Write the structure tokens for this entry.
Amino acid sequence: MTEKPAKNPMTSTSRRTFLGAGLALGGAAIAGKAASAAEGEDVILEKQTWNQFLGDGVDARPYGTPSQFEQHVVRRDVSWLTADPISSVNFTPLHELDGIITPNGLCFERHHAGIAEVDPAKHRLMINGLVDKPLVFTMQDLMRFPRRNHVYFLECAANSGMEWRGAQLNGCQFTHGMVHNVMYTGVPLKYLLEEAGVKTNGKWVMPEGADASAMTRSIPMFKALEDCLVAFKMNGEALRPEQGYPLRLVVPGWEGNMWVKWLRRIEVGDEPWHHREETSKYTDLLENGKARRFTWEMDAKSVITNPSPQAPLLHSKGQTVVTGVAWSGRGTIERVDVSIDGGTNWRSARIDGPSLDKSIHRFYYDFEWNGSPLLLQSRAMDSTGYVQPTKSALRAERGTNSIYHNNGIQTWHVKANGEVENVEVS
Amino acid sequence: MSKSLKLLIASAAVAALVTPALAGSFNLGREATPDEVAAWDIDVRPDGTGLPEGKGTVAEGEEVFAEQCASCHGDFGEGVDRWPVLAGGQGTLKSDRPVKTIGSYWPYLSTVWDYINRAMPFGHAQSLEPDQVYAITAYLLNMNDLVDADFELSKENFTSVRLPNEANFIDDPRPDTPVMASGKEPCMENCKEGEVKITSRAAVLDVTPEEQAEAGKGAVD
């Protein structure tokens, strides 16, 4: 009988393998001692457990999870923001991500009555109102329509809303983390509306969710026919429950609240409904007491994700990578400029990776840091020529009570020791 | 039949198979029954479309509100902790701390009825009878000093009640900040005069989670 080979003691719990590993570890310790006279790093001169012992087999992790060393990479919430975590929001850890795609488990969550756990076999999508024939679709019905794949950003209109009155939260996760960017697979809403036959006076649609908040919004017909999707997949797999499993609406470039999750009904009407989320919420109060309504489009915006308060510059002066994300609800990102002196002088950053319509873009600015403090800013310009404004330009137009649609330029103060603080500048 | 004719028919059949379906011709889904539509079609609009038969008085509403709503919203709609304030706030919209309530901010009464009916009470949605929703709505109007204590709200008189802030909602004028003409670039050199100074610091407030978090200003919705 042959002895079973020892598994990595970090992941194995059986007594037999633990004993075997203990012996082997003793051996490694002796080897390490002998090597201590050698010059160099222990991580090279000493054998690591993973160099010698076996890891988990293919049956151990049927649905993979990130490395145990990445456990800090999670969505976080700000408990004082809302009365209760059931109707609340958490934030994407933008400072831990790269590229343009947000992993499904890190996409920020915003729901109004908790995560509905919907059985897809019992889920139906109804189309009613001003149509020739009200219809009901099962999930299987929906998957028989021709499908489309699109990468789109979803940004909550309240992203950066806490910063209207001044710098408040230390971390781009909290100041800018109500955004994510995934590839959706779904069916054009147009096909479903055409199947039901929209009457000539049908000018608006009202999507409605199946959760206990029964979320509703009014969407003009032109947008519904232009590019809205009824999606069932994100990044190739089924929608996550917190993102509306089994079905959500995708409203490219428009505020996240309209992307109704757990989508169960679409009504066609001749007038908007003026429901709670488009009157008492998601309207932008101005300094003069008037309020803008139906502020659907998300303006061009960018933020430097690294360095940022949660991701300080831990290395010495010299070659330094500044990176961040930019997006626009009106098209693609044409350019991103970066300033290290608080907006006096700008250099064009390098956009790397796909440049897709109404999708996050990734930019890099590689430069030689001389070790002195920096006032880092990024400024996006989209394909319509719209330039991301300063926060003071936004306040001059709107005051500080708008809550929503704060896309102003963010400033990070990088100190000589590499710490980073959220600041505003003159 | 000639060989070429056979081929022609065969290729026509193939073409029919691969031709994209025309609008409305996927033949998927089934017709919804009137009862199914009625079960889900609960939305109400400012013109009263969608309101069911029913009525309720301020006094009846006060009772239901105390039982079903006051634990979060307070006996007088003042809001407990950070739960929404429903009454008061008139005259605050231009101030540093606007209080956006049904009376001070909401443009349409139908929004109140629709939202209570679809989503309230929090945690037991769609459990109220139409008469109870009319009564709670009447009580909310009374708490906002918009109707007298003996008022009864019904399907019939619903659209005669207007909320005071209706006229203060305007359409979206964005973009309200500069857009570059084609081929132009934004300022790249010497864009600010004088030394750039820090005017605001997050560390002063220190409301970031995992620090000694105090309640910060602002809200997400």
